[in-house]
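step=encode ok
step=design start
structure_in=
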């Protein structure tokens, strides 16, 4: 059996992510939570998250939970978004939880989205 650097990295990443999903949390996942009330700005392509009803955007190496967005993020637009809000101070299975979420659609097509 041949073990490559990529497979070791993938296993390590899976362990970190799995710890964040279990509710017990790993030290690394907990440490990545922004302090409650801290302003957050993220730009990226929204995607359905790992659990039903979960919408996530990845930006700056972090995943953000956009479940509190009202109105909800429209994934059918298949365009990038700019998100502003405040850190709720916790990490969910979807990412860093945000409150006071405001979403602006940028009109930039996300990779992998079919052309209209």
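sequence_out=
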């Amino acid at each position: 059996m041949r073990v490559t650097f990529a497979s070791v990295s993938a296993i390590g990443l899976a362990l970190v992510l799995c710890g964040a999903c279990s509710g017990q949390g790993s030290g690394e996942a907990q440490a990545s939570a922004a302090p409650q009330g801290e302003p957050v700005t993220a730009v990226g392509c929204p995607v359905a998250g790992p659990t039903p009803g979960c919408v996530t955007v990845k930006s700056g190496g972090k995943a953000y939970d956009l479940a509190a967005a009202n109105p909800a993020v429209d994934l059918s637009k298949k365009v990038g978004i700019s998100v502003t809000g405040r850190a709720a101070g916790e990490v969910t299975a979807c990412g860093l939880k945000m409150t006071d979420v405001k979403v602006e659609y940028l009109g930039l097509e996300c990779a992998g989205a079919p052309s209209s």
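step=design ok
step=annotate ok -> The chain is about 20% helix and 40% strand.
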